[in-house]
Amino acid sequence: MKIVIIGGGIGGMALAILLHKKGFTVSVNEKETKVPNKGNAFLMHSDGVSVLNLFAPYSSVKELPGMFIDTFTLKNPNDIALKYLKLEPWQCIKRKDLINYLYTLLPIDKIKSGRVFSHFLYEEAQVIAAVFTNGEVEFGDVFVGADGANSKVRTTLFGKTNFTPIEVKEIIGVVYLPTVAQSHSHEFNKFLSQEKGLSFGFIPISNEELVWFMQYDVNLMELVEETPNSIRALCLELLKDFPVIVQEIIQANDYATSYIWNTTDFDLLPSFHKQNVVLIGDAAHLAVPFTSAGTTNALIDAKVLYEKFNTETDLQKIFTSFYLARAKMVEEHTLLGRKIKQTFLHPNEANIDEIEIPLITQKESKNKPAFKYEKLHLLYFTDPVCSTCWLIQPQLRKLKLEYGDYLEIEYCMGGLLPSWNNFKSGPITSPQTAAIYWDEVALKHDMPINSLVWLEDPLPSSYPPSIAFKAAQMQDIDKAIIFLRRINEMLFVDSKNIVEKVELLNAAFEVGLDAARLMRDLEGKSQMLFEADLALAKKFNITSLPTFIFTNKHGDSLVLNGFQSSETFETALLQLIPKAKKKPIKKDYKNLFKIYPTLTTKEFSFLSDLEMDASEALLLDLFEKKVLIKYNSHQKDIIWKLSE
């Protein structure tokens, strides 16, 4: 079978390489007479990078070109943060670097340059050849249109494309600025006007260069002619009120190399093929640039279509299966791009917290499966600085592993430490006595507790981190629990003062929350939510932490106060749901770290049923083999985590 690919861009080349390595006969037909490296640079999602990684065995290049990006910051023109969060890994790559890389992976005789597609030759309704404007003809069995947004192959198959109006234009450039590139390494920085449709972003490509872009509402200012001087004047005028770093970038740019993108898209096609011709990449589906989806989707198209060719021989089944595999996702990206565009064009109507990240994501379905078991409601009163709440983590984590199918856990803040004025909780009456108590319980329970914080930088109250937890819940209930775990680690292991906003911001960023939003929410609704938790604690007469209130569907309740053994937890649960069945725990380290990304030695020992000495030896061996990493402030205060 010979597969003729029309278009030698990223999608077309990726498909050709995959097919060629599998033994298919391929022919790539590119309109440019040289390697097609027009354009500047782009972001590629990890899904796209995973496709490129398939080529690694065939390449002498050790690493992919470009720089990985894992941080996103969104600010307004006054340099005030609107969003600050950790990203799934992305790769910022110069287009010409990636194209040159791909062209080294396919024999040169498989690539025909200077071929502008004209029309197809047919025989009994099947395409038998592609004809080019230079008179050359390429015969084949299957034809792939990978000829971009203005695809003539698409027009041949489906007629005129109904593009959406051009409401936003984007100017893109690559600039040599080592100081800025290095000081913002691995970051995607964007400035967004909250008054009009205007934004500016920049992303490092290397330690020396960065790609920048300006997106603007076409009604703001007309670009009379597409000359370097006109483009420069437009950028300087529209961005005159943006921060100094923006001015530095646009002043240093060479506008002779900048690119103007008239952004548009079109509705999902009813099919990506007709007979023996199929479309991929922008030829098949086009999204406006607010999602950075184009290159990633082209590479995924190539991989999915290759897989279909590799497992099926019937062309119609191949193409139908390809469409079913890709249509839903690319339509979602199109609709997301349109949604972000409308917010961009009408910023005064946008809620800051609801502004979408201008990137596609690996979103998991929010439709949770129906409950298979009778559910028990567990109201868990805790506090970020409660040492007993930290010490009980091994038991609580085991309960979740064995009986999690039966539990709905609601986390409530108990308000342990309003202030040190007239405070008394058992032997603790001051920061100094808190340090003594922590040292004592650490020896008793084998959980790492570093008491230095009470001697060097004592927390004045537990209310600020409690309010921060409620702010985290406003964003994502599941990530809020991870956030609570992280600030626990920062306090009990790293001896950090988690009242400080910088520590709360860092923790929020680390666990994938929007840290800028969390900082805003600390002063708003989260305080009322915290007060509601305190009112609930008062209603239930909570006098010690932790407190666990189990309630079954019949309204029967059972209350446990303070530190509990696993046996006590199990007895309480079985008393309310007698038919509950314990789930066996897979005790190997891979499974435990998959479920709980960070573990203390005590937790690992408790969950794996290994003695502390044996656990410590195993974890240390895995650390030396670079399977695990560890972080600690003292030799015994260790948190273990799988290596990236």
- Strand element count: 24
Sequence stretches where pLDDT stays below 50 over 5 or more residues: 364-369
Q: Give the C-level CATH assignment of the largest domain.
A: Alpha Beta
Secondary-structure-derived class: alpha+beta
**Computed Rg:** 29 Å
Helix content: 25-40%
Strand order of the largest sheet: 3-5-4-12-13-14-11-15
Major beta-sheet overview: 8 strands, mixed
Q: Which whole number gives the mean pLDDT?
A: 94
User: Cα distance, first to last residue?
Assistant: 41 Å
Count of helical segments? Answer: 22
* Name given to the CATH homologous superfamily of the largest domain: FAD/NAD(P)-binding domain
Per the principal axes of the C-alpha atoms, what is the gross shape?
Answer: globular
Describe the structure.
With 644 residues, the chain is α+β, with helices and mostly antiparallel strands. The chain folds into three domains: 2-66 and 95-163 and 266-342, FAD/NAD(P)-binding domain, CATH 3.50.50; 376-576, Glutaredoxin (3-Layer(aba) Sandwich), CATH 3.40.30.10; 589-642, Winged helix-like DNA-binding domain superfamily/Winged helix DNA-binding domain (Arc Repressor Mutant, subunit A, Orthogonal Bundle). The protein has 22 helices and 24 strands. The strands form five sheets. The chain has an eight-stranded mixed β-sheet with strand order 3-5-4-12-13-14-11-15, sandwiched between helices. A six-stranded mixed β-sheet has the order 6-2-1-10-17-16, with helices on both faces. The chain has a four-stranded mixed β-sheet with strand order 19-18-20-21, sandwiched between helices. A hairpin with a 4-residue loop joins strand 8 and strand 9.
